[in-house]
Amino acid sequence: MTFAPDIEANLLATVELVNTAEDPDTLTTVEQLDAFYERHGYTGHRDRDAGELAQVRALRPVLRGLLTTGDPEQLAVLVNDLLDAHPTRVRLVTHGPLGRHLHVADDDSPWPSRICVEAAIAVSDVLIAGELSRFGVCADDGCDGIVLDLSRNRSRRFCSTACGNRHAAAEYRARQREQDQA
Length: 182
Ligand SMILES: [Zn+2]
Ligand SMILES: [Zn+2]
What we know:
Layout lengths: L4 H15 L10 H10 L10 H19 L3 H14 L5 E5 L3 E5 L7 H18 L6 E3 L8 E3 L12 H21 L1
Antiparallel strand pairs: 1-2, 3-4
Helix pairs in contact: 1-3, 1-5, 3-5, 4-5
The site of one zinc ion has 6 residues, from strand 1 and strand 2.
């Protein structure tokens, strides 16, 4: 394992949130927001309304900046800006499938705000570990999705299985064309 389980969970949620902005946008309804909350085992307060949806959607370019900066100094500034802008409160808790883990913001703090704090802390861990190369952009030509490569051999190139399959199919067709011309 590369990072602590709660850090990995936060990284996966952050990357997925950023990637919902890819075409077609997959975070346009409160139902999709609900599904994202459930899928990533969030707990704590939330509004479940259009206002919260708009706030979470607005985080995506901010968080994308966090994941794509690549420059440690610039990233440190972005992290500290986020931690200045959102209330933090660190407690050690035990619940859910993760068992013992840290909460870095109060459960009553607005959910979009907690997402920011959790992302800032998780990305800090990656920065401190010197592992920023774990973040990349999808190798599929038509996709700008973020790739989070937590694999041991750093083999991950695509943001999703769909992009990997699309790329493989395109390569296969290209090879077929070469063979036909040979
Ligand atoms: Zn928790
Ligand atoms: Zn992709």
